[in-house]
Amino acid sequence: QTVVTQEPSFSVSPGETVTLTCGLSSGSVSSSYQPTWFQQTPGQPPRTLIYNTDIRSSGVPDRFSGSILGNKAALTITGARADDESDYYCALYMGGGISVFGGGTKLTVL
Amino acid sequence: QVQLVESGGGVVQPGRSLRLACTSSGSTLSGYGMHWVRQAPGKGLEWVVVISYDGNYKYYADSVQGRFTISRDDSKNTVFLEMNSLRAEDTAKYYCARVSGGSGSYFPLLYWGRGTLVTVSS
Questions:
Q1: Which chain A residue lies closest to B105 (C-alpha atoms)?
Q2: Using a CB-CB distance cutoff of 8 angstroms, which residues of chain A are in contact with residue B58?
């Protein structure tokens, strides 16, 4: 059973840069997994931020960027703002129609 | 503008069935793979199922295999999720999502609906 791993929580000060990661319980994440990042605030549906590793969805500020760092996918928020405080999920495409979500990272900006 | 709207949620007893629908206003679902993703109260996102753009291929999470069935009716611009033998652990908000690319794409999920809540309780 493949598990997609994310930091359960992260804290950042306003204006700082934070990098969240998305890994695999076994193996390395590469662009072939088409890493996708979602932002979700309480009571709202998920919003797709980044897909195919590093492509920003329409309307997403360029403060958000995606990459592969080492053996993980990464979401970097440059100059964190108070309204970036959200849950962030990554998802990977495992092939054969199967997608897997990570457990999510609760980002606190304070 | 792709706007997805889910419907059909509600309270249902364990062992019973429920049928969810996902429709799009302003754009066609025809030609795109479609997913259902759920989120139990206070929990993370869980992928449930995907249907191919032509309805010929369907892939399910182990947790719902054999109990849930996805289908699509492009003439109605709607995707359905038939949920049978419901359990308490199926309680969640169910979101439909459309993939970004057409034809054979199953990923990534780009557009999301606002979800419909399913509560399985006696």
A1: A97
A2: 97
